[in-house]
Amino acid sequence: MTDMAAERQLPTLAELTWDQAAGRACVWCKKLLDRGAVPAGVIRERDGAHVLDTEVWAGPCCAGGRA
Ligand SMILES: [Zn+2]
After folding, report:
1. Fewer CB near the terminus (10 Å): N or C of the chain?
2. Which residues contact 10 (CB under 8 A, 6 or more apart)?
C-alpha cells in the first residue's frame, strides 16, 4: 500500500496556521486534531543559517481514513 498522506504536496511554512505549525491541526484542512493523527511529513525550509524544519500532521479527514 502506498502512503497517500506522505505523497501529498505539503504547504509552505508561510501557509501554515499557528495550530498547524504546532502539530495541533491538520496540515491540509486546518481541522484541529483530536485522535488518529498521522505524521504528514516534514516541511524543510531554512532561513539563512537557521533550519526551520517543521513536522506536520494530518487527521483522518485527510489521511485516507486510516487511523
Ligand atoms: Zn484534514
Report:
1. N
2. 27, 40, 41, 43, 56
